[in-house]
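Run log // design_07
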């Protein structure tokens, strides 16, 4: 007998038919002889609706009340699923995060889980009931309801699985698993059977929405593998787990991209100690998040070029901050911008041990006539900024260059041109 934690996302419990369908899946796992704990998200669109209500009411809501409001969506779906299970003669009980004992810090709207109590769940499991838990929420030291950030039900599931030392943590969603790139964007994208925590973390931080980033962090910290599966079709899904030999052998695992980027480039910045901090400080004081940064010294004079990217939504605000700053500095700084760029990133732990990944990537882009405007790298990631209109062609070219459309076994051994 195994202990399985299953999490169902918003689209999986999006209407009553779907809730019946989820109940059947839970019952199937139970009939196979397992203990099952189910974590649910709010019904599809519900959290957004609650957020819209709050903003329509006032722009100055208390974070405490906001959390009380947005945590309520999960309470609805947990009760409905529990009712559906009971109606099918499968004893079940639902609990909110605070009832279970999911303790968090005090940071409303993006609280972190500090401790998960298991007594309540264990007591119910011993009575042979299915335990249904509301995702996305916990309770702080004052007894106030907190929420875990958008997509936080994934983190609830992983935290419970780790605390219970579950045999499996299954995350059911509306896609078959993790793909080499977004299959809606590139039909040649292929399902990745196994991916390392580290790669998944990069992909999640780059905007892959399958799993909340914190859930991957937590899974990695507690050595709790996660299986991402579809609620609507059968299949093995993707196992997010420890690094292994096959993962190390492949050059790259996936391509992530985001369209909504803007690039701001300052040339002729006086080379003075602390200048970079001064510029970035002003931007972050305005609560604008900076993504990529590059700087290079001019060969002509004592200045440097300083380039960074921000989310396109914040581009106008970032520009006002920069224009103000340039006026203050009273030097001949030249500002160049492009608010229609996209970021394209290649992720893979194989990069650590195989040289030439960047060369293959850049050559593939070059062949398509795609100009690279900025590059950043980490141990397992290469990101480039390109014109947004070239994004699709770029993803396609790189996907092909690394044979990501082919099954692992059909691939040529590591190759470089
Ligand atoms: N309902 C929450 C959200 O929409 C949490 C989740 O779905 O994981 O962000
Ligand atoms: Mg989600």
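design_07 sequence
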């Amino acid at each position: 007998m195994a202990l399985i934690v299953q999490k169902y996302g918003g689209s999986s419990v999006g209407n009553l038919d779907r809730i019946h369908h989820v109940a059947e899946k839970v019952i199937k796992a139970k009939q196979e002889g397992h203990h099952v704990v189910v974590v649910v998200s709010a019904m599809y669109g519900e959290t957004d609706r609650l957020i819209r209500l709050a903003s329509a009411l006032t722009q100055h809501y208390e974070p405490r009340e906001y959390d009380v409001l947005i945590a309520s969506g999960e309470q609805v779906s947990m009760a409905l699923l529990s009712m559906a299970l009971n109606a099918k003669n499968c004893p079940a009980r639902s609990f909110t995060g605070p009832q279970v004992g999911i303790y968090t810090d005090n940071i409303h709207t993006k609280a972190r889980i500090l401790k998960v109590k298991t007594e309540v769940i264990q007591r119910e499991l011993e009575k042979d009931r299915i335990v249904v838990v509301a995702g996305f929420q916990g309770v702080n030291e004052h007894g106030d309801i907190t929420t875990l950030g958008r997509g936080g039900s994934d983190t609830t599931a992983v935290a419970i699985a780790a605390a219970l030392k579950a045999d499996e943590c299954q995350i059911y969603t509306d896609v078959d698993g993790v793909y080499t790139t977004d299959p809606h964007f590139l039909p040649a994208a292929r399902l990745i059977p196994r991916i390392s925590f580290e790669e998944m973390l990069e992909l999640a931080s780059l905007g892959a929405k399958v799993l909340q980033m914190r859930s991957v962090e937590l899974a990695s910290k507690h050595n709790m593998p996660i299986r991402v599966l579809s609620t609507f079709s059968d299949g093995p899904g993707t196992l997010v787990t420890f690094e292994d030999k096959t993962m190390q052998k492949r050059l790259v695992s996936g391509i992530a991209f985001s369209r909504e980027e803007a690039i701001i480039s300052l040339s002729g910045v006086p080379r003075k100690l602390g200048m970079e901090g001064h510029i970035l400080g002003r931007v972050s004081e305005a609560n604008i998040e900076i993504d990529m940064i590059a700087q290079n010294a001019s060969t002509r004079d004592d200045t440097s070029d300083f380039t960074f990217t921000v989310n396109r939504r914040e581009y106008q605000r970032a520009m006002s901050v920069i224009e103000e700053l340039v006026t203050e500095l009273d030097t001949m700084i030249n500002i160049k911008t492009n608010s229609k760029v996209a970021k394209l990133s290649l992720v893979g732990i194989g990069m650590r041990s195989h040289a030439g990944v960047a060369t293959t990537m850049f050559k593939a882009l070059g062949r398509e006539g795609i100009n690279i405007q900025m590059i950043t790298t980490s141990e397992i990631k290469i990101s480039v900024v390109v014109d947004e209109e070239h994004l699709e062609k770029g993803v396609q070219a790189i996907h092909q260059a690394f044979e990501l459309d082919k099954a692992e076994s059909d691939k040529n051994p590591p190759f470089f041109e």
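The longest strand covers residues 254-270.
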